[in-house]
Fold each of these.
Amino acid sequence: MLILTCPYCGVAADETELAPGGEAHLTREGPGSDDDAFAGYLFHRENPKGVHFERWRHAMGCGKWFHAARCTVTLEVFGTYAAQVTEPPRAIRDAVSARRPGWRWRDLT
Amino acid sequence: MSEIATALGGARSDGLCTVCEVPPLGMIQIRADLGATAVRDAVAEGAGVAVPDVLRATTEQGRTLCWFSPDEVLLILPRGEAPSALSALAEAMEGHHHLAADVSDMRAVLRVEGRAVRDVLAKLTPADMAPGAFPPGSVRRTRLGQIAAAVRMVEDETVEILCFRSVARYAFDLMTEAAREGGAVGYFDREA
Amino acid sequence: MSIRLNSGGRRIDRDRVLRYRFNGRDMAGFAGDTLASALLGAGQTLMGRSFKYHRPRGVVASGPEEPNALMGVGEGARFEPNQRAPATPLHEGLVAVSQNHWPSLERDVGAVNTALARFLPAGFYYKTFTWPRAFWKHVYEPFIRRSAGLGRPPEEADADRYEHFNIRTDVVVIGGGIAGLTAARLAAEAGLEVLLIEQDTIWGGRAPVDGVEIDGNPAQAWVDDTVAALAAMPNVRLRLGTMAAGIYDHGYLLAYERVADRPDSSGAPRHRLWRVRARRIVTATGAIERPLSFACNDVPGVMLAGAVRDYLVDYGVSPGDRTVIVTNNDDAYRTAIALHRAGLSVPAIVDARPEIAGALPEEARQLGLTILPGTGIAKVKGGRQVTGVALCQQGGDGAVTQEIACDAVAMSGGWSPVVHLWSHCGGKLIWDAEQAHFRPDPDRAPTGADGRGFVVTAGAASGALRADAALSDAAAAADRVLTALDQTAGDASPPRADVPSEAPLAPVWMMPQRAGADLRAKMWLDFQNDVKVSDVRLAAQEGFTSVEHAKRYTTLGMATDQGKLSNINGLAVLADARGDAIPQVGTTTFRPPYVPISMGSIAGEARGDLFQPIRRTPLHDWHEGQGARWEPVGQWRRPYTYLREGEGVKDAVNREILNTRSNVGLLDASTLGKIVVKGPDAGRFLDMLYTNMMSTLKVGRCRYGLMCSENGFLMDDGVVARLSEDTFLCHTTTGGADRIHAHMEEWLQTEWWTWKVWIANLTEHYAQIAVVGPKARTLLERLGGMDLSRDALPFMGWADGTLGGLPVRVYRISFSGELSYEIAVPAGQGRALWDRLLSEGADLGVMPYGTEALHVMRAEKGFIMIGDETDGTVIPQDLGLDWAISKKKDDYLGKRAQARPHMTDPDRWTLVGLETESGAVLPEGAYAVAEGTNANGQRRTQGRVTSTYYSPTLDRGIAMGLVWRGPERLGEVLTFPKVDGTPVRARIVSPVFYDPKGEKQDV
């Protein structure tokens, strides 16, 4: 039962007010993409033990989708941020690095 | 024009708090980029009420504007004023990408009053009902039991709950049960 | 025999007698008693039978950790099994029955299992019930079922009510003993919001019983003062009778408040489940005493030394006249001294330690008590009651050195911190060799959202067992909380306790140390599940050396008490059998709840009418009044059909269909989703969402559209109307409104966020009524206000206007194949429109119809239904809907997926109509068989039924189905076996059974 702070309304929302949306920062592959790329987009997901980026929706609230950077082991939340980005913003990456030295974006293992 | 039926016909119950369905109101849903000053000003002009801050409601001359999301507010006003307010909004918002829709019949409004109102609500919602976190003038869209609802703290001991019309009966029964005599928690209302 | 003394008992009020019933007998106790103390006070030592061997059992403990004294409490609709007698406050009229015996507690037939104990070792079930296989059904399973379970389930619906309570606070302190009170006070003085909860019905914990002095005063006085001070602080909330059940992620705590466990008329909920979000949690949960493992340590009369002290001091009850103390530590001497001072006989203090030097033993010696160092109990004598003990050298093999007659034994194997709550959310433990217990490792606390530990332990829960250490530990715990929350300490200074020094204990995991197999087979570890030292050793011997395996093989710690007494002792025995140190063995996982909580409290208010929200349309009350049979559609209730007096369901459906096709029918279509999409990019957006081209739709017109997931599968359908150049209204299925609205928001917010589109889900603003049938136009014209002629409002057009003075939007769309108008009106006027239609259309034969008629009529027309023809694996192309898939668009959601080879495979099963040769109705979901078998030896299939109905219009069965290369095989006959194997033959036909040219809807 997590609490995540919605970056749009600032509410520290109870997990029962949120809807999960799986891994963040996927790139949509449409017509013309090759089979591997499309399969990757549709099916292949990271399942890291550690730093992870997820999509959540403040469904029972302001209705906005947002991103959360958190640790799947300690449940530490490094930050939440708007959904209108294709990769975690610098401030979030710095926050992760400060707590997990040596960590690199997309180095999710 | 025939009479407007509310979902519950003005149902009322008494317990730790009174719960009653309010008579028909006018409501207009407005979606627009409230982060843009020009849009904000246009909404305020069209609605006749200042645009509220995040998680707040503003009330002026019988009209209330509730913050619902960064790009959505709900204008609550006397039923008869809805058509003219829609026109005024259309005029004021001319040139601004927006959506304004009459949703007067879409929701039910329950007024819950009594000293125990925070204790009663805290039985049903995970939102923080502490006076410091939810002072009068606040609006929270949240979960109430198993439904989505907006909770507006009107005054110290008065709350209005907005829920979809189809679940009005559930919401009313839910509030009535939570406010049943004997169930005083005495957490926020320490005199209980 | 246990007795009530003439004096003493700080918790009872001897002036207030409470009557209760136990096993049908009238009994009496005092206000303040627990069920256990009242029974003991009445001389009732025997309180239950053990689970496996049906051994006679008495109460062992004085709190919720009790494994033996489990009772069925209450009657009828208020009956609850497995209630722990020492944690059940007595009240007037309480009714309790003991469990797990037949025909009576005193004479129990199942006790024969004791004699068979030697044949019922650990793993007995796994070994015995495997072969022969044929025995399973008639021998083994009935046997296991009869032996399984503890207590009797309630048979009536629960008469009480329950509720939840959600709060957020800075600090929750769990445990109202001296450590919890201290931590709460220090946190509160610093200005934090504090909730202090205590599972017991009084504050203070063990300190008042143990005679502790705090700041120069008796503990009770200090407790009273501190509670009064806390109660006066506006930032403090205090709750007795509230047990912390579990600690979860991000500071989430479940606490179980017993508000009104006795039935009364106040209307109070029985239990309240607190769902607390705390920034920090202090667990001041104390410690639990460990039993000692000696032979026949389960005979009624053998109790924990601390519990004996509790019963004596708290309730004025003595478990026996002559109590032998057996211990490995100094604390148990408090019991000896207390019993002696109460005028009771303590024949001997049997101490396993060879050297005894502490202040408490010294005091006992001065009182003239006999201390036997280096000694252990070889065996307890007695059956249903202790009659004596045989003693031996602790270091030996159990050779009896002397026997002492007694009727009670008070045992202490040392104390273990209550680490459960600390461990629930991942807090780690370290082994404390000196005190022989696991305690929380403060450096490995469960972490919260800020990445730091959010649980802090205080007092005995940290392993600080003595009162002085507990108080300074509690102060340190408060300090850690204040530091973590950036709070400055208040003025209050931490209290100090005055207690005698204690000598270290000597770990004793088996008594005597070199006991042989005979004795080990009678040393109980887990009293409730009947697990003995011999069972754990057997598990290890048979290879179940992992602690989790050994637990499951032996069932150690798996009973309702979750091994609160047996855990550490069991681990130690396992470690010894493995030849490892205890920390290498580790512990099993502690899981919530700490003590079982009622199912009702978990459900809260969600029962009866509030079990789940029922969504009602604006016409719901009318339907209800007209005999509607309800069909649940999601949370909506829609009329399936309207039953008339004396009419069967099938007849009603047929009547509604025939009337609609010949006269005019009304359908409540309010549940259909209505989502407005507006903006300069609205057309572009809908082109991506629908497989069709929506941007070319003309204002004033409607178009049927399909929505697919990115995986290509059909997920929803509905009619889209273009309201203006930049505004569309999208109808969704009943179940799809919220889902599709969310789907639209998701793509707008997370993929195409630069597109200028706003959406609004207006579903519930409108009542929507379908007016369907050849006389539909006539009826609407009678209401007046709009030109609804074919020229003014052609098929697939819409128009705004008024009907009978009501503001409406009329869509000329048809899901039945008839002339049809769907009329949207503001919900508050929906009933008015409905009533007008019924009254104006009376002579036209107007009649409402339900969802079943709707389904049949759409099937007669070959229209698909989401959820019937689709199941998440069906693409539009499977349904012959290629006409609704734009070939001109570069992209739409699902397009790429539909290009995958298996999606374009001509061998896919495709939609056809099916007509039985006999005219009968095909069974729902039936499969068409093909020649041969598959790799698993199963009959091959070549198609399945997706919709099947009796059509009153055609007076025969009609069906739709997905069939291998279906449309290429028109005229072929397929065989569909019924459940009983008999075949039904059906011909492949066009799915459009009625008015294939579509002439009726376009008049």
Amino acid sequence: MSVAVLKTASSPLREFAASYARSHVAVVALILLLLILAVAICAPLISPQNPYDLAQLDIMDSKLAPGSKSGTGWTFLLGSDDQGRDMLSAIFYGLRISLGVGVFSTVIALAIGVAAGLVAAYGGGWTDAIIMRVVDLQLSFPAILIALILLAILGQGVDKIVVALITVQWAYYARTVRGAALVEKRKEYVDAAVCLGYSPVRIVLRHIMPNVLPPLIVVATVQVAHAIALEATLSFLGLGMPITSPSLGLLISNGFTHLLSGKYWISFFPGIALLLTIVAINLVGDQLRDVLNPRLK
Amino acid sequence: MIAFILRRLAQSLLALFVMSALVFVGVYAIGNPVDILINPQADQAEIARVTASLGLDKPVWVQYWHFLTAALSGDLGKSFASSIPAVQLILQRMPATVELAVVATIIAVVFGLPLGLWAGLKPDSFAAKSIMAGSILGFSLPTFWVGLMLIMIFSVWLGWLPSTGRGATVEVLGLHLSFLTWDGLKHLLMPATNLALFKLSLLIRLTRAGTREAMVQDYVRFARAKGVPERRVVSVHVLKNILIPIVTVVGLEFGSLIAFAIITESVFAWPGMGKLLIDSINVLDRPVIVAYLMIIVFLFIIINLAVDILYTALDPRVRVSGARA
């Protein structure tokens, strides 16, 4: 955001909003994203049924096509799964879990990565060498592989998948922050701060960090989408979320067996929800990056 | 240059050693495979016999030492489930995975480069905007879900393509290949497209971004001022400069394609090593998991090394900084 702030002293926020709104697609994506967030947060209030309260499920309603009426007379808008669970409600609850896991792991990974990157950049020497070797080693393998190894070792569970998602993300932030911080470190304002006798901790936290963080937050936005997709993939492979916390990936996986017999809706609609979430996040992140990138102005 | 290669080689060996220790210690912690492998009614003597025959009664570090010395001679233990050497089991499955990854790479490059160039050269045209929208979609769609939808459309609804397996194969130099038979090709098309989609989008975006940044650089302006025809500006000046990140990505992504093949293979029941890994994780077949991970780690280290060396050959700037670092 610092770029926009520097360019216009009059009304930076308005200028920022105006240049964001130049892309209508991005505006639609932002609205969609806010809607998805609202649905995820309010899932228990707006879902037609609580899909995990067994008392509300009727096995007679299983595998109904979208739009069918249940035995008790209300409509399954998006059909039902093999347990007679309303897919719409299952998706609302699934969104909650997927988004929660994605956002939470990204925030923690960002914090760890920023800390490690700043320590490496300002510490230099051995500290830098060790941290960056670990980062290099990890980044030379794809996220899915690292996550698979971890989950093969740790087993299933919400906590384990969060650990896996944090592990695959932190190194990326650490490398980016270190690069940016090394550039900042050579600038005059840091020399000035050193001359003023400020402590290294103060210089790093109050002077360098504010300058490296804004572009990184934009990256983190897009990373949330990656985390959500990765979690869904792992859950699909049967290594992610336990059956008690059905994320979107697990819903899709559950529908896979019914897909070949033509009952597409059990996999299809959770997939659409996943897709919309990821696309919305990516579009918003992309536009933020374009607006904030001085090289494209 | 030679010093650089030697240093990278030493780093690679260290990485291999570190990863082997991590993988071994990690997998050791999963659980006791004896519980799964033998009959629950078996008596203590039987359990002890199986444990001893698998070498599971020794301390971890002894097991690791045996593992390491054996691994150096290419022996990573026998599969608990099938008693076939784990390496052999994986190498049998490897051609299927590599074939899938190669075909996916070809699809991604053949479509990705021209589309990306087009989108970068005429960023405001309708075609460019459609290409970019498509690439965002390809980037965002989770691989496994696209696979499911492909199966739903082309296998269940249209009935054009088979949804599982490899189909008929032809043996060439001891390798079984699918793409040489019509049936095999039909089996290959969906999984390969599925696997390629992500890389295709990545290539489009990378090429476009590179092209857009290159087009406003001074050397392009200079070439134009010099009277170089536009086609030559694009095909020589621009392409040469954007090719470096692209070669890196195609190279590096080949390894990740093999890793991502785990997902595609699971969806399409493609009998490659990724599917073997997932099956092995589900039955805790420890030697196969370790062998798979070691082989893929080895593969990645080789690929990274090759890309690094290629990089220095393509871009003299890297050579200078690499020699100093």
